[in-house]
Structure formats: C-alpha cells, structure tokens
Specification:
elongated, 5 strands, 12 helices, about 375 residues, 2 domains, OB fold (Dihydrolipoamide Acetyltransferase, E2P), about 60% helix, single chain, alpha+beta
C-alpha cells in the first residue's frame, strides 16, 4: 500500500508539473523511464526497518534504451526479505529503470521487472490459436477486439477523465462495442442481429438493476484502492458511483455476447435440423440448451470475480472482525453487487435471446448460404 501511494503521488506530481503551488521558486520534478539489464550484483545487505526485514541489493545496471543507452549505473534496490525470491535481481535480468531528477540531482531506481517480451509471446500464441481453430472468423473477431480496445482507450477513458458521466459514457461505448464486435465476429446475418437485439435489451435491464441496487446498498464507488486514488487532485471530478455502474455494464457486456450468440445459433441449428418445429418447440428446446449454458457460466462469472479479488479475500480472513461486518464492508458488497447483477443479466439473456430467435427463425426462411457456417 505504501509503495502504491508513493507511486501515485509521483505520477500525480509529474502530471501537474509542480509540488504544492505553481510557484516558480519551488522544486521541479522530472521522471524518465529506460529499459535496462542487470550486469552484476555488487553486494547485498539485510536490515530491519520498523520490525520488517528488508534486503538492499547493490546492482550494476546497463541502460539499454533512450538517451542514456549504453551507460552503466549503480542502483540500490530495496525489497522485503520475504519477497527476495520473486522480486530480487539476478545478473542478465531485464528491468525498468526510473530516473528522477530534481534540479541537477539525478536518482535512479529499479522500478520493475521488464515483462513485455513474454507478454508479446503469450499474445502471439493467443492470436495464433484463435486463427488456427476459427480461420477467417478468428481474424475478424480479433479485429473487433482491437476496435473494442480502441473505443475504451480513446473514447471511454478520456471522456470519463474529462468529467463526463461514466455511466452514460460506458453505456454509449458499450453499445458501439456490442454492434462492432458481434458483426465482426459472426458476420452480417440474422443470427448476429438477433444476438445484438438480445444483448441490447439485456444490457438495459442490467443498467436498471445496477442503478437500483447500487443506490439501495448505498455504494459510493470508493471501495477500492484505485478509486481512492481518483479522489485527489484534478481527478476528483470523476463520479465514482457512475464509474462503478459503468464498470458493471462493461463487465456484463462481454458475457452477454457469449450467451446471446450461443442461443441464437442453437435455435437456428434446431430449425435447420427440423424445419417443421413450431415457435413453441423451438423456444422449449432452445431454452433447454440455455439452461445448461447458464449453470456453467454463472459459476464462471463468480469464480472470475473471486479470482481477481483473491488477495482481498485473504486479507479479510486475518482481520479480527465478525463475518457480518466484513461482508457488509463496501469493497465486498461492491464486488457482490457486480457479480450478482452480471449473473442476473446472464440468466435473463437466455430466455430473451431464445424467444427472439424462436420467433424470427420460425416465421422466416433460413438462408442457405449461411447453412452450417459454424
């Protein structure tokens, strides 16, 4: 927590360009970041700081990027003794170097391990697997994913940071994401249009549910450490409750896409297998498939949230408080509302998508060009 607060303070000071007031007489700070490589560990000391065992490594680091490329720096790297195995430096290891400059004094720090090359390998593996097993559809799905990231980075986040309503921004951005991602991944056809209509209807229901229960549970949106940081400086104008609601909508959108497309496809394939099936039979059989989908995805959604919050859950187990007090805390209730609203939307999406698909596929003619496309 201390490190996060210090890091945030440094970023905040850098973004506004001053510390304290805007007086020209006060010290100016400048941060630069470089990639580096640990050449050698010159020494290592262990000490106790406020009852905590710490290790200080004297590292010799070669700068491998930027204006100081090729220069060798001696940098102290401090870490907790218990974290030495994972956070300690070893020769040959790539790192991120932070250069902090105040007036003419430059101080270098090892900010983090450099992880991007291995992340790139994982991304390439993901792209390769997607394209290998899905072919052309995989390529279009990845293009849709790229567009979704573009919308989030270039529209949703800047709009929220500029003071716009997070709820309206996320809902509007979510609509654009739903349209583009569905048609990119599944093509322009009746199946995709039914899935899109089902997704939008369910998204509106999720929006209503989230507004009602965030208000009833009196959530402020400040239940996380990250939200706490946004209450300072120029970021204080961000509506944290709206940000919580917007996050619920964006989170539910990804799951709804999966359910509505699966249900629409299931009903269409049932109709192809037996063109004589009526609306009632299509709905009944499609809903039977959907029930199996629900039971697995509800667990998936809950476990995904639990996995993301596992460190918080572990901390709560060591806090000497009654269980009901822990359960009542804002950060726990926030995650539970997020999970339950998403799960409720997931359940409602199945009958909504099934009834729309059963109606349109029972009354219209099936396109032979798209038969057994999937």
């Amino acid at each position: 927590m201390r490190r996060k607060l210090l890091t945030f303070a440094a970023i905040l000071m850098f973004s506004v360009g001053v510390f304290g007031s805007a007086s020209a007489q006060e010290p100016q700070f400048k941060d630069e970041f470089f990639k580096g490589e640990v050449i050698d560990i010159l020494g290592e000391q262990q000490s106790e700081v406020i009852g905590d065992q710490q290790v200080t490594q004297q590292a010799q680091v070669r700068i491998t990027s930027g204006a100081e490329k090729g220069e060798i720096k001696k940098i102290e790297h401090r870490l907790q003794s218990s974290a030495k195995e994972t956070q300690g430096l070893v020769p040959g290891e790539p790192v991120v170097v932070l250069k902090n400059q105040e007036f003419d004094i430059s101080t270098y720090y090892i900010m983090d391990k450099y992880r991007l090359p291995w992340l790139a390998v994982l991304m390439l593996a993901f792209f390769g697997l997607t394209i290998f097993f899905t072919g052309k559809r995989g390529v279009t799905a990845l293009l849709g994913l790229g567009f979704n990231i573009f919308v989030i980075v270039s529209f949703i986040i800047p709009s929220i940071m500029s003071g716009s309503s997070p709820l309206l921004v996320c809902f509007g951005g979510g609509l654009v994401i739903a349209v583009v991602s569905l048609y990119c991944a599944h093509g322009f056809n009746k199946r995709s249009s039914i899935a899109l209509a089902s997704t939008l209807i369910t998204l509106v229901i999720a929006l209503i549910l989230s507004i009602i229960f965030v208000k009833l549970t009196k959530l402020s949106g400040a239940g996380t450490e990250e939200a706490f940081f946004l209450q300072f400086g120029e970021y204080a104008r961000v509506n944290l409750r709206g940000l919580l609601l917007g996050g619920i909508i964006i989170g539910a959108l990804g799951v709804l896409d999966d359910v509505t497309t699966a249900q629409s496809a299931a009903v269409e394939e049932l109709k192809r297998a037996n063109p004589q099936l009526s609306f009632e039979e299509l709905y009944k059989r499609g809903l039977s498939i959907g029930k199996e989908h629900i039971t697995s995805l509800v667990n998936t959604l809950a476990l995904a949230y639990a996995g993301a919050s596992l460190p918080v859950l572990l901390i709560f187990t060591i806090i000497d408080r009654p269980f009901w007090v822990i359960l009542n805390s804002e950060d726990v209730v926030e995650e539970m509302v997020r999970t339950l609203v998403g799960s409720s939307a997931l359940i409602l999406a199945v009958p909504i998508a099934t009834v729309l698909a059963a109606h349109f596929f029972s009354t219209g003619k099936l396109s032979t060009s798209s038969a057994h496309r999937h």
